[in-house]
Design a protein that fits this description.
By secondary structure, this protein is an all-alpha fold. The protein folds into 2 domains: 32 residues; 232 residues, MetI-like fold (Orthogonal Bundle), CATH 1.10.3720.10. The protein has 14 helices and no strands. Helix 3 crosses helix 14. The chain starts with a helix and ends with a helix. The relative contact order is 0.13.
């Protein structure tokens, strides 16, 4: 079917707007990558635009040689992987019973769960609550159990579980299967797209988390990479404010920060393409069936 002139003009305008949005979104990250491989002096002079200026690997080598960066990297991987496993376990165990109509008081349970989305205590009560629990301050396992479950994720997975036909569960029960078998052999395999989407949300959220880690962790051996990066940025900004001239050390610190940012986002760039298809499928199926 031939499109009208107005439709063609709209398509061109739409493509132009999308290209602008893509450029605005991607260029800051592209600039950080180019600056991390550029000469610090050229970065300060604004010579880096789209390509590296004075190609230099000093900043990357410096970052890879920093012990605190590697320690923070290992902590972040531990918090993201182990924390996501805990989150998914609690989410599945919470969503499955809430999706079964035979659960007594299901509506009452859902009301209590939804209240946590409507009302929040705030940062200070949360901090005082964590402080009052023995072992929750300044521990490696603290970051695994702080906000270990999301109400939104439970509701999303519960909605997905509700679309599994009851006949499949009844057939399995007639064959002698219990609830654990039904959950692991029927519901979870049929819900892989939804589970992958929630896993991606949880993993990215834990990988980028830094605020509560900064408040609850005092031992430098436990802090994640994002806290290390933030401290580097704050210290570099403070140094630039206190010092009038731009020394070579400060310029190197700026490019080191760029290099650290690049190193920090590499795992996300590697993981995301493999789970993108499950993520899109889970969102689409949830939108259609929900």
């Amino acid at each position: 079917m031939r499109r009208s002139r107005g439709e063609r003009i709209f398509s061109i305008f739409n493509i132009f707007i999308m290209c602008v949005i893509i450029f605005i979104t991607l260029y800051p990250f592209w600039y950080v990558i180019m600056a991390s491989f550029s000469n610090p002096v050229d970065v300060a002079r604004g010579l880096v635009v789209f390509t590296p200026s004075g190609f230099n690997l000093t900043s990357i080598r410096h970052v890879l040689a920093m012990e605190e960066v590697w320690r923070g990297y290992l902590n972040t991987i531990f918090y993201a992987v182990a924390g996501t496993a805990i989150t998914m376990t609690l989410t599945v165990l919470g969503a499955y019973p809430l999706s079964r109509r035979r659960l007594r008081g299901r509506k009452l349970f859902m009301i209590f769960i939804l209240i946590t989305m409507w009302f929040g205590a705030g940062m200070v009560p949360h901090f005082l609550n964590f402080q009052s629990i023995p072992g929750m301050m300044n521990g490696r396992f603290t970051m695994l159990f702080v906000f270990a479950i999301s109400t939104f994720h439970v509701i999303l997975l519960r909605t997905f579980f509700e679309n599994v036909p009851d006949s499949m569960e009844e057939s399995a029960k007639m064959d002698g299967a219990n609830d654990i078998t039904v959950l692991t052999r029927i519901f979870m395999p049929l819900s892989i797209p939804a589970l992958a989407a929630i896993t991606l949300f949880s993993f990215v959220g834990r990988w980028n988390a830094w605020f509560w880690a900064q408040l609850l962790l005092r031992n430098p051996n436990y802090i994640p990479l994002q806290v290390v990066l933030r401290r580097m940025i704050v210290e570099a900004s403070f140094t630039a404010t206190e010092t009038a001239d731009f020394s070579m050390f400060e310029l190197t610190e700026q490019t080191v920060i760029y290099a650290t940012i690049v190193v920090a986002v590499i795992p996300m760039l590697v993981v995301y393409p493999f789970v993108q298809k499950f993520f899109v499928r889970g969102i689409m199926v949830g939108a259609i069936k929900g």
